[in-house]
């Protein structure tokens, strides 16, 4: 994509293109002995970007999350428009049934868990939620965590110890990667979605260490690329070589599959993966996470020996009540209707983007990644979008490769066709405003 870079820089009266290019690592003052001051240049770089409208992060919404949104950037500048930047796939965040569940739970149980799950932080609502998900997921035990991050980080770090091995997809979520790095186990990262690479790793590890523990880690739906592994084949490979498979289903559970049980349902693997973890913050309109397994006793062990489970407060009764009611909607006819609406919106958005020369990646899901070129192009196009009423999330390094940037469009069941059209029209306008020539050949992200 060709940019009008000199004209833009001159118009903005910038001394350099530092706000249009570069990443956090370029500004981190690692030579500074004061650990706090090392981050000052990073903050100054983000502030300079924010002053010019080139830092789309750390936004604050006003009012309810819905298909439209208003709010402010961290410097107080207001924005409003169609909302493709919130994770509310079935549009449940303001659903009347969930609002009522909050009021009822607050009256019956109060608003605070007041303790760790390993002590007395659980309540009747959290117990009912665990039991409901055991039935929904067809697992013997489901254990709640205060967030999806703590569930992923905690279970990886707990299961694998020094002397063990973790074989993890190169693009697995940061909570899984950090859990692996902190576990003390030997970590092997395999090319994205390559089951054959996993097989080769397991053969090598087993030949050298027949008795070592091996944890294989992947996701059902990768949130940056909207793609999925062949889970049945991967589970068979793990079983053959005595490895344990851990799968993260955060982005598809509830919003995909005939009954809402996600990619595992689509692939015929419900209840068949060794260990399943997920988050409630995408479809279930709340904070929280879980770990599910067929292995009796893992829940008791986690509450005693998993730091993010043992040494932090449990989900509140209100959060548990919200997820429980969201699960009821996911499981009833209304949930099926919402999933169909979501799928139709995803298909229509992808079609409109393709017809207008934009490149999307992965398979149809509530996440639609759109390539928007290098950092400078992406930042300028994103500024144009937000200033003109299309709110999107920009994804840059280190979440993606340094040379590429994406919009991660997040689709909701309640999006209207006119709102999708509005988004695509504004994307076309942004491309035309930033590129020399707004043609598909010379100006396609």
UniProtKB/TrEMBL annotation:
Signal peptide: none annotated. Its cofactor is pyridoxal 5'-phosphate. Its EC number is 2.3.1.29. This is Glycine C-acetyltransferase. Residues 82-424 form the Aminotransferase class I/classII large domain. Keywords: Acyltransferase, Transferase. The keyword Ribonucleoprotein does not apply. It comes from Aureimonas pseudogalii. Coiled coil: none annotated. GO terms for molecular function: glycine C-acetyltransferase activity; pyridoxal phosphate binding. InterPro entries: Aminotransferase_I/II_large, AON_synthase_class-II, PyrdxlP-dep_Trfase, PyrdxlP-dep_Trfase_major, PyrdxlP-dep_Trfase_small. Pfam families: Aminotran_1_2 (PF00155).
